[in-house]
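Student: Send me a single protein entry containing the residue sequence and its fold in token form, directly below this note:

Tutor:
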Amino acid sequence: MSFKNIIYEKKDNIAIITINRPHVLNALNRDTLLEMLSALTDVEKDPNIRALVITGAGDKAFCAGADVKEFKDKPLVELLEFMELGHKVCTMIENLSKPVIAAVNGYALGGGLELAIACDFIIASTNAKLGQPEINLGIMPGWGATQRLVRLIGLRKAKELILLGEMISAEEALQIGLVNKVVPLERLKDEAFKLAKKLIEKSPIALKFAKHAINAALKTTLPEGLDYERMSFIALYSSEDAQEGIKAFLEKRKPVWKGR
């Protein structure tokens, strides 16, 4: 697959999407979002890909957000189309059947942070700056931050980030639970791959079921979520991987996953 605005690679059962617009701090325009959708679709369909890493080209920015040129002086119909496209990318990342890791190098602002928080894990470099600065432009987040941030870091901190529009450091992001880990920039990609390699050692079907059950907790009541978990467990238990995992445990050997 050939792309202009992203680099899409596959290595050792891991896919890597690199937003490749460093001249504009990897800001997301319409074409970039469409390319990401195409790559994400391929990740979902490729049985050999077991995990995905998303990062940005260069060391200054993971993604500085939506490209302002995409919505300045545009008709509302075009603006709505662009906003829906961003939502579609973030939702597809969130619902992907495979774990997704954001390797945040530098700025993750606005839509860039919304892209990161749709991922399952965020590893940030020490030079990372994260925030939702839309309020400073007289607008607000539009790709999920008002909903996902509340669930991730709580109401007070979500309001602080969104209503003040100030950037926070990687260390503060770690303290409030926004990111999983902070590492030096030169180690960022290695740490992301290290995590991805741990994940691909697990049963792909178990990862899929567990991820969907966790996500369901954000959309259901507790009784509904518990019912979903119970039914997911029963469905997963009938899989070949579950039987192999139990058998391998009893035989004290490493399981051989088939993903079914």
Observations:
- The chain has two domains: 6-199, 204-250.
